[in-house]
Every structure is written in C-alpha cells, then in structure tokens.
Design brief:
globular; eight-stranded mixed β-sheet; Rossmann fold; alpha/beta; binds cytidine-5'-triphosphate; five-stranded parallel β-sheet
C-alpha cells in the first residue's frame, strides 16, 4: 500500500528516538520513500546523519537550513508527503499541535499538511497520564489526527506503566491501515451492499472444561469486516471465539460451535448480498457432549473420542444460493492448492475462493500477513506477494465488486 509513497517521519526528543531507525527499515522494506524531520531535542538522542544514511534523504532539523536538496518553501514536505508519522511523539509535540503552535520544521509541516498525520506517543507514564496530555490527545483525535497508543511495561526511566513506544511492527501495520482507510474512505464503493462474513475458529465441546478447535485467530475475517465498513458497506460479522475486538460499525454476533455458526448464518443469509466465509469451521465435533467433566478415575487407560461430522456451512448455503448472490470461500491447504480449491469451488457453488498454503512462511493462521491465491470458477488464478491481511481484505472486496454485484447498486 505504501509502496512508492512518500512518508514523512517526524522524530522528537525521547529515549525511543533510536527506534525510528527500525521504523525506517520497515518502511524501506515496504518500498516507501522516507523523509525525516527531527526536532532540535531529537538531535540530542540521535544524529541527522544516521537518518540521512538510512533514508538516502537529508534529515531536516532547521526550518532555515540550506534548501540544497529540497524545495524552498518550508511546507514543501507537507505537500510532497502521502502520510506523516510522528514516532516517537513527545508530550511536547502533541501539546504544540493541539495548541496550534508551529515554531519548528516538524510542527510547521504538520500544520501545513492535509494528509493523514499519525502520532505514536512515547513518554514517562506519569506524563502520559497527565490530564493535560490526555486532553491534548483527545483534541488531536477530534481534529482527525490518528494516535497509535503506547504500550505498557517498564520504561527507560524505571517506572512501570503505559508510555512505551508501540511495537514497530504494530506501528507499521497501523500506518498502512490508516493510509488505506483514508484512501478507501474517499471512495464509498460498497454503499448499499450487505455482507455476511464469518470469522475465527469454532469450538467443539467435549465437556465443560475441554474443547476441540484450531489455530484461527479471526484476523482475516475481522479485517474484511473493517474494510467493508470503511468502504461504506453493511456487514454482519459472525465470529467464533476470538480475542479481537468487534470492528466498529459491524453488526457483530459471537458464536461458539459450528452448529451455532450454521444457525446464525442461515438466519442472516436472506438479508445478505454477499457471503464471505473466512471462518475455520471444525469439520467434526464430539458425538457426546459430556455434562460433567470427564474424570480420569472413571476411565481406565486409553480413552476413545468419537467424532461426528459437522454441517459444511458453505456447502449447505451453496445449495440454496439465490441468483445474484456472491459466495466467497476460503481454503487452507498444505498441498495441491489449485486442484483442491477448484474442486471446492464447484462442490460449494462459489464465485471464487481465497486459498492459502498454510505451510508457507508468513502465510495462514496467527500472522498479520498472508500469501493467497485467488481462484476463479473457470480455474484462472493469481497469487499475491506476502502482504498484510488488510490488503488482502480489500483485494477480496475489489473482486466482489468486479462481479458487478448487485445489478441495482
Ligand atoms: N467450511 C464451512 N463449514 C465447514 C467446513 C468448511 O463453511 N464445516 C468453509 C470454510 O469457511 C471455508 C471453506 O469451507 O470457506 C473451505 O474450508 P476448508 O477447511 O479449507 O475445507 P473443507 O471444505 O473443510 O475441506 P478439507 O478440510 O477436507 O480440506
């Protein structure tokens, strides 16, 4: 998403300033062009030369320094940038922007920018919790700035609490998400389309304390739901157990077992134009759900667990698929991806399938990235690079739109 884009990285004076190097290297891997603007106090922690060497661009500190490498006006970086990230962001820069002060290159650039500006605060816990800082953060949010909250832990000063710069991987992921949402937000191309999305694993109960499940975290389905909301669509998200929070704006329903998910999908299906089935549904469940905890003493040696087949939700919905509806399936495979997926498209009456080889590095469960194949009814397929799941979510929605659905949109 940020490939070939211009990111302005503002570095302010905190002990976490050195982490900006890691951010730069992550951004470079994505293929972004980076310009660093430092505050005077940031130079006490790290030198402009470090950033210059890492980015290949001069790091700007002084508003009036020689414009050898960049345009004359002090707002030129604001105009050139696609997104601005301030990391680490001190209480001082947050306070200055909230108060409308523009007295150095960074605060001036932020003020002159009409692009998304993202702050990743890092400071002492007591400072972070100070009502003035909290109020300034709220002011920034109200004005449309983005905040990536710090995490908790033991800080450089020895205090414990919230205030540590967020993990660089999280900052990069959030930054890309914010950039994408800003872009997509401008195009509400899913308005009027109703989506039914399933996510997460299912849990098949053995007894009150045990269950069978799988490694799905639900991330893919939640990203799809978020993307739908961002693009103006309506979404009902039916999720198996997941630690993720329900996406804002989605009609959310939590279920536990495959049978519960099946009932919920049948209920919601008539109101949906598109069914996206990203849940990792357990194919089997214990034949008997014990009412009491199974005790070792009551069973000698080995025990047997008899499993019975769960309904194949996607297959069943495929049988009653109404004309004009779009069904998108997922496939987690470990071999013969295309062959197995083509068979699933036919058997489950799908419009297309999103398949991944869960053995591939950076793909499948519990990763923020994935590598997928999009396979069509006619067997044509394309493979993505290793990209963020949120990018895959948008690609899926683009493909749904390509199916020109619905006709009266
Ligand atoms: N699916 C479903 N209900 C099930 C099993 C799977 O709705 N009981 C859906 C999944 O949500 C996914 C698709 O079917 O969209 C394919 O799931 P996958 O586990 O890859 O395939 P299965 O059909 O279960 O076949 P197998 O496990 O034999 O590969």
């Amino acid at each position: 998403m940020l490939q070939g884009k211009n990111v302005v990285l503002g570095v302010t004076g905190g002990i976490a300033a050195y982490k900006a190097c890691e951010i730069i290297s992550g951004l470079k891997k994505i293929g972004a062009n980076i310009d660093v603007i430092m505050t005077r106090s940031a130079t006490e922690f790290i030198t402009p030369y470090t950033f210059q060497s890492l980015t290949g661009n001069p790091a700007i500190v002084n508003m009036f320094q020689s414009p050898k490498y960049w345009d004359m006006e002090h707002i030129s970086l604001a105009q050139k940038s696609d997104i601005l990230l301030v990391a680490p962001a001190t209480a001082n820069i947050i306070g200055k922007v909230a108060a409308g002060i523009a007295d150095d290159m960074l605060s001036t650039t932020i003020m002159a920018s009409n692009r998304p500006v993202v702050f990743a605060p890092a400071m002492n816990t007591k400072m972070y919790e100070n009502p003035a800082v909290q109020q300034n953060i709220q002011t920034l949010i109200k004005r449309g700035y983005h905040i990536i909250p710090p995490k908790g832990g033991i800080l450089a000063c020895g205090d414990e609490g919230q205030g540590k710069l967020q993990e660089v991987s999280v900052i990069l992921e959030e930054l890309q998400k914010i950039y994408r949402q800003e872009l997509q937000g401008e195009r509400k191309d899913l308005a009027g389309i109703r989506f039914l999305v399933t996510a997460g694993p299912t849990r098949e109960i053995i007894d009150p304390v045990r269950f069978l499940s799988n490694h799905s975290t639900g991330k893919m389905g939640y990203e799809i739901a978020e993307a739908i909301v961002a693009r103006g669509g309506e979404v009902k998200l039916i999720s198996g157990p997941s630690s993720l929070s329900a996406p804002k704006g989605a009609d959310f329903l939590s279920v536990e077992t495959a049978e519960e998910m099946f009932e919920a999908v049948k209920d919601a299906y008539p109101k949906a134009d598109v069914l996206i089935k990203s849940a990792a549904v357990s194919d089997y469940r214990p034949k008997i759900r014990e009412a009491q905890k199974v005790k070792k003493e009551s069973r000698e040696g080995e025990i047997q667990l008899t499993l019975v087949r769960n309904p194949d939700i996607l297959l069943e919905m495929g049988k009653i698929k109404a004309p004009g509806k779009i069904h998108v399936g997922f496939a987690a495979e470990t071999e013969k991806i295309i062959e197995h997926s083509k068979e699933k498209i036919q058997r489950k009456n799908l419009d297309f399938i999103v398949a991944n080889d869960v053995t591939e590095e950076g793909a499948g469960f519990a990763h923020s990235t994935n590598i997928v194949y999009f396979i069509d009814q006619n067997g044509e397929y394309s493979k993505t690079e290793k990209v963020e799941k949120s990018a895959i979510a948008h690609e899926i929605l683009d493909r749904v739109l390509e199916k020109k659905f619905p006709a009266d949109k």
